[in-house]
Amino acid sequence: MTGNLKSVYLKLVLTTFFWGGTFVAARLAVKEAPPFFAATCRFSIAGTCLVALTAWYARREGTSFPVPKGLRELALLFSLGVTGIFCYNAVFFTGLKLTTATSGALIVAINPLLTAVLSALWLRERVTLTQGLGLLISLLGVSVVISKGSWAVLAGFAFNKGDVIMLGAPLCWALYSILGKKALATFTPLAATAYAALFGAMLLLPAALLEHAVLGGPWPAFSWVGWLAILQLALLGTVVGFVWWYQGVGRIGASRAAVFVNLVPLFGALQAALLLGERVVLPQLCGGLLVVAGVYWGSRGNARHQAVPALRKPEGRGPERNGAEGEAFPERWEIRP
After folding, report:
1. Domain for residue 29, yes or no?
2. In this structure, is residue 123 part of a structural domain?
3. Does residue 238 lie within any of the structural domains?
4. Cβ pair 202, 34 in contact under 8 A
5. Is 328 left (phi over 0), alpha (psi -120 to 50) or beta?
6. Which has more pLDDT, 211 or 151?
7. Is the separation of the CB atoms in 139 and 320 below 8 Å?
8. What tens digit of pLDDT does each residue of 80-121 get?
9. Segments forming the whole domain that contains residue 229
10. Could you tell me which of 211, 151, 189 has the C-alpha nearest to residue 311?
11. What percent of the chain has a predicted confidence (pLDDT) above 90?
């Protein structure tokens, strides 16, 4: 393995480490502030950085800042903000206020396969038998996680509210991913994500104001720990994660890079144990292994039928290059907001 590839793999591992840490950071943030306020802080910072990066790359490439042409493109970008930023983070932060970071990480790990299934229904993409089996295994794992391995909980639907709310996160992400594939026909991933973050922050702000009006009391304020959590979510989990992920996908291909996503629930559980003192009980461990095994199995089946996507620049829509190493942006839509 060349030193260059070692750097790519290290960045991919660190990216999944940052993404696993978002569950811990969000759990810390909502201990100090309501969910919509925390989400607004995260994407006000991330959106500003992503817009600045988009403008910087456009100027470096000698192109203008990518602007949507017409109401249809604007509506598509706005829908990314609704599904992937506003709705996803509403259930993400609310769920983590009521459940553990470990459970959240294990539940959300089902993202890739749920996206594949909804893509088949909406975009008429092919779902292989291997993917279908992988999804069933993952769903079984999620059932074990949210029921804590108790048949009585399953039979009586006596689930933790936070776990149930967290189930909405993979659904929101799947919708965001499907819409993202449409957006990437005309926008680079960086530009599309920047618009999504910008529109999402615009939607989260009034929700945070309404949340404060309903809850009452003084305006929320973070301690230094809370601000570190917000900065981790905004800068490492969103901005740095975006750039490094697409550098990796551009170098080794989407299918090979997708395998690294299986590290996210592992890193999430490890960081939750170290930083929050959460214990991974046996049902969570067994359920988590089933989730990861199902995602890995389904991803292998997908890799056999999927060629590495062509690398191209959407015509007239801004920067083609990504990061300091200059890799091209692929069409694969995998960044986690």
Report:
1. yes
2. yes
3. yes
4. no
5. beta
6. 211
7. no
8. 999 999 999 999 999 999 988 888 888 887 777 777 777 777
9. 3-306+313-328
10. 189
11. 39
Closest CA to 174 of 240, 272, 261, 83: 83
Which amino acid makes up residue 91?
V
The count of domains in the chain is 1
Contacts of 44 (CB under 8 A, 6+ apart): 201, 205
**246 touches 335 (CB < 8 A):** yes
Rounded Cα distance between 17 and 6, Å, is 16
Residue 333 lies in a domain: no
Residue 70: CB atoms within 10 A of its CB come to 7
Q: How far apart are CA 39 and CA 17, in angstroms?
A: 20
Confidence of residue 53 (pLDDT cuts 50, 70, 90): very high
Question: What values do phi and psi take at 273, rounded to 5?
Answer: -70, -40
Helices 35-60 and 3-29: angle between axes, nearest 10 degrees: 150
Q: Which residue shows structure tokens 């839509």?
A: 333
Q: How is residue 35 written in tokens?
A: 């969910």
HEC readout, 15-74? HHHHHHHHHHHHHHHCCCCCHHHHHHHHHHHHHHHHHHHHHHHHHHCCCCCCCCCCHHHH
Nearest 5°: CA angle at 25, between 21 and 30? 150
Residue 309 neighbours by CB distance under 10 Å: 14
Q: Which residue has the higher pLDDT, 94 or 163?
A: 94
Contact yes or no for 176/83 (Cβ under 8 A): yes
Distance CA 131, CA 148 (A): 25
CB 327 within 8 A of CB 246: yes
Q: What does the alpha-carbon distance between residue 160 and residue 158 come to, in Å, rounded to a whole number?
A: 7
What is the rounded distance in angstroms from the CA atom of residue 241 to the CA atom of residue 303? 22
By residue count, the chain amounts to: 337
- What six digits make up the tokens of 177? 């991913």
Say which residue, 267 or 207, is predicted with more confidence: 207
CA distance 109 to 309: 23
